[in-house]
Every structure is written in structure tokens, then in C-alpha cells.
Amino acid sequence: MHEHDEPLRDLLVILRHAPHGSSWLKEGLDAALVAAAFGQSVSLLFMGEGVMALMPGQGPGPLEQKGTAATLEMLEMYDIETLLVDAEALSALGLSADELMLDVTPVSTEAISEALSAHCLVLTF
Amino acid sequence: MRYAILLMGAPYSHQASHSALRFARALVARGHRLEAVFFYHDGVHNASRLAAPPQDEPHLMDAWTDLSREHEVALQVCIAAALRRGLLDEREAARHGKDGISVAAPFELTGLGQLIDLGTRCDRLVTFGP
Question: Per-residue DSSP letters for A73-107?
Fold first, then answer.
């Protein structure tokens, strides 16, 4: 259950798309950074193929897009420190949290619904 | 209640724009206040003043303009998402040396901060996307 005595956080950004194939991840992260720059408390939730954003060693690649790894490395500077990862998606993709590029918290389906109700605003990308 | 809409689907490519427009119409018909529609991701294409759909199909850009004028709904377009997709107002066209203008009032190019502000100010922010 959600702890009702904990204050609601401002914004949960859900990232469901893998990097490189579309601009969803980049534009979702941009929204998170802007909110954080405005002083909001922001959490990220990586779901489905979105967890692949956290694979280490990513370069810009042949599409000549900047990629998102550099943005992810800046999250701490923006005080975005609550990084949740869908545990089921991780195992479905054969990944484990300790091989990802950032320190993340794997969360169960139940914990995901708690996270949804613990934020005033949810944006899904 | 005070509402805002976040639209991230391109017109005619996906249902998102049509659904968002119908939802917007339903909101104002019920007496709710729709503060703004924020266009992001491929949703920025809704702001193209050059769109020329066949005459027997709904004209989404005109419909957004009508909605804005009838109910004082702000039409806010993410400037970063718009510029890289070729959507420029007069000022940005001049700044980037382009000889065409693809965005005009009541659509306005603005920053993502406006989206965050809408999320804070409004009772509900409803997202439409593909």
C-alpha cells in the first residue's frame, strides 16, 4: 500500500521506448529535465523496452542522433534520483539491474501501481 | 474542472489527434474549462498551417483554430520538437533564414516549461498519443 503520510511527489515520467529507434525516449527525458529544472520532484520509471535505455556503452550510432546516454548521466545533477525499473521487463529481456549504467531500483507490478498513485502528475512516453 | 490536453500523435497518421479534438469538444460542452492543448512529439504537426487535407475529410488544424477562438483555449507547441520537424513561426523562420512560415496564431511556439506549468495548474492533464 502507498504510505499516505508521505507527501506526493510532483512528476512521474514513464519511459516505454528503447533508445535510437524513435525520439520517444529523448523527448520523455527532456520533459523530465525541464520539470526538474523548474524545481519539481521528478521520478523516472523505465518499462518494457524502455529499460534498454539503461544499457551501458551506448554511442550515438550510425543514425547520427546524439543518443540518450549522456542525458541519463546528467540526471543526478538535476536531482532526479528516483529511478524505477520494471523488474518483469528486465527479466523478459534477460537483463539484471546490476549490469545497467545507473543505480536503479527494480520494482514489481504492485510497486508500479503504488508509484502511479504517489505522484501528482504522470507523463507517459 | 480545469483541464489541459497533451497531444503527441501526428494528424491523420494516428487516431490521437481526432480523439483529442473530440475530447476537447466534449469537455467544453459539459461546461469544463480547457486551458490549453500542448503539442509535443509528432503532435506538433497539428500546428502546420500548410496542411491541406481532402475536402471531404475533417480539417484538424482548422478545427483546433476554431476551438481556440470559440473557447479561449491556448494552443501551445513545443518549440524544440517543432523546429526540428520544420514547424516555424515568423520569428523562427527569420532566425533560421527560412523563406516559409508553417506555424501561425493561434498556435504559439513555446517551451516544455509550459507543459509542466499546465500539469501543475490544471486539475487534469490528459495525454493522447499513438
Answer: HHGGGGT--EEEEEHHHHHHTT--GGGSSS--EEE
